[in-house]
């Protein structure tokens, strides 16, 4: 049974400090999961690139790197120390904030938005108000 497991067709991932990595180019793969805007990435304090939605690869030398991500148009940024191993890609997940001046989520696993319940409640309330206004306006 162990032989079948060792011959798996997908790359085996390792976990380091909660971050998973797989054989590949040396660096980090930041997945921008969702959000209303883009984001910018700083590594060790230096602006590296703007993130597109989806997976974004950033080549980095081996070692621990201080990674910060800020949603465009937002003032609050998220930071994490990410380990990078030679010959491996470390996976990092970022989710933009839903409400201005709240932080997004940056870390080793995808997580729900910060303030998601409040944002969904406000959007629902706004939608109900707009529908009620339109019904009232056109019922005359």
From TrEMBL:
UniProt keyword list: Membrane, Transmembrane, Transmembrane helix
Protein name as it appears in the record: PEGA domain-containing protein
Biased composition (Basic and acidic residues): 1-16
Transmembrane segments: 117-138
UniProt source species: Nocardia callitridis
Region spans: Disordered: 1-24
């Amino acid at each position: 049974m162990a032989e079948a497991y060792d011959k798996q067709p997908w790359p085996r991932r390792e976990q380091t400090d909660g971050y998973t990595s797989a054989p590949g180019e040396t660096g980090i793969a930041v997945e921008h999961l969702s959000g209303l805007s883009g984001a910018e990435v700083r590594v060790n304090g230096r602006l590296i690139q703007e993130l597109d939605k989806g997976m974004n690869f950033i080549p980095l030398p081996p070692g621990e790197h201080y990674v910060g991500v800020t949603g465009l148009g937002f003032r609050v940024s998220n930071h994490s120390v990410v380990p990078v191993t030679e010959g491996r890609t470390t996976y990092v997940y970022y989710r933009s904030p839903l409400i201005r001046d709240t932080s997004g989520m940056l870390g080793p696993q995808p997580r729900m938005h910060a303030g998601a319940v409040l944002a969904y409640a406000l959007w629902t309330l706004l939608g109900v108000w707009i529908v009620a206004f339109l019904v009232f306006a056109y019922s005359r």
